[in-house]
């Protein structure tokens, strides 16, 4: 039996023949929502760079710390773009542990990510998953999920955690979301770069060209430009493990950490 047959997490009609970032990342994080072609790509990436799973885990840990930070700033609604397949410490779990009334809309264009999120959220009136391309800013903001759950007259935590590098044109997309957010809102992001050694091998981008999610690494200045209209909170743009680490011992050499990470406030 192929691993597609009989798997209840595969939405009917979904074409999963091409590997996807969502399922490759799920595999790297130790998840079970991936197929043989996804695992083959993940293993190719690991052969090029054995630390790739550590980069993924640290990215996920940044996501949790950033959401907790936004909660501390009083944010109670989140728009999570490129949210991926649910795994440990999903945004609604972190947020609703602090405030059960916190609202979360997940957005992804990968059918397994959306189907699995919907299954997880079926009894959760304050969170929903939207299947959409995040570059369709107007469509996302006008969706039933966003209009039902998010009040755009109040601050929103906009999350773009490892999203930007999948988008060939990124500034207009971020500017579109920024324009819809009121002061007091925040943007939290991570972004792949070639500025540091760990993911800069050109074979990483080459390998991802065999998937549906090509990557576009960006420089520090290009990532900083995504925060236009936001004021970076301390400690500014770092790498993922080094943004407000829980413990000093968690500090990682940026050359190994690999992803830019930051949080900005809209004033
Ligand atoms: C590596 S996963 C990251 C998941 C989660 N944000 C995290 O950091 O743990 C990147 C996700 O972005 C999604 N993605 C990439 N391009 C997208 C787009 N244009 N619109 C919506 N989702 C997109 C992929 O499907 C994938 O689920």
From TrEMBL:
<keyword id="KW-0808">Transferase</keyword>
<dbReference type="GO" id="GO:0008168">
    <property type="term" value="F:methyltransferase activity"/>
</dbReference>
<dbReference type="GO" id="GO:0032259">
    <property type="term" value="P:methylation"/>
</dbReference>
<keyword id="KW-0489">Methyltransferase</keyword>
<dbReference type="InterPro" id="IPR006764">
    <property type="entry name" value="SAM_dep_MeTrfase_SAV2177_type"/>
</dbReference>
<dbReference type="Pfam" id="PF04672">
    <property type="entry name" value="Methyltransf_19"/>
</dbReference>
<protein>
    <submittedName>
        <fullName>S-adenosyl methyltransferase</fullName>
    </submittedName>
</protein>
<dbReference type="InterPro" id="IPR029063">
    <property type="entry name" value="SAM-dependent_MTases_sf"/>
</dbReference>
């Amino acid at each position: 039996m192929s691993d597609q047959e009989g798997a209840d997490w595969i939405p009917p009609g979904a074409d999963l023949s091409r590997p996807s970032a969502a399922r490759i990342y799920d595999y790297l994080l130790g998840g079970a929502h991936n197929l043989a072609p996804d695992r083959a790509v993940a293993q190719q990436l690991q052969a090029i760079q054995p630390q790739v799973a550590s980069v993924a885990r640290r990215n996920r840990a940044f996501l949790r710390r950033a959401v907790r930070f936004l909660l501390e700033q009083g944010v109670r609604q989140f728009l999570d773009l490129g949210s991926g397949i649910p795994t440990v410490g999903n945004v609604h779990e972190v947020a609703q542990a602090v405030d059960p009334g916190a609202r979360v809309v997940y957005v992804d264009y990968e059918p397994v990510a959306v189907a699995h999120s919907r299954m997880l959220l079926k009894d959760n009136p304050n969170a929903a998953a939207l299947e959409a391309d995040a570059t369709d800013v107007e469509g996302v903001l006008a969706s039933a999920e966003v209009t039902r759950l998010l009040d755009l007259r109040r601050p929103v935590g906009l999350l773009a955690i490892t999203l930007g590098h999948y988008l060939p044109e990124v500034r207009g997309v971020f500017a579109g979301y920024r324009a819809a957010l009121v002061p007091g809102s925040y943007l939290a992001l991570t972004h792949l770069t070639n500025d540091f050694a760990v993911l800069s091998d050109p074979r990483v981008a080459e390998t991802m060209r065999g998937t549906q999610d090509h990557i576009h690494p960006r420089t520090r200045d290009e990532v900083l430009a995504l925060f236009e209209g936001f004021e970076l909170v301390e400690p500014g743009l770092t790498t993922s493990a080094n943004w407000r680490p829980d413990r000093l011992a968690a500090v990682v050499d940026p050359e190994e950490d690999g992803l830019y990470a930051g949080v900005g406030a809209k004033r």
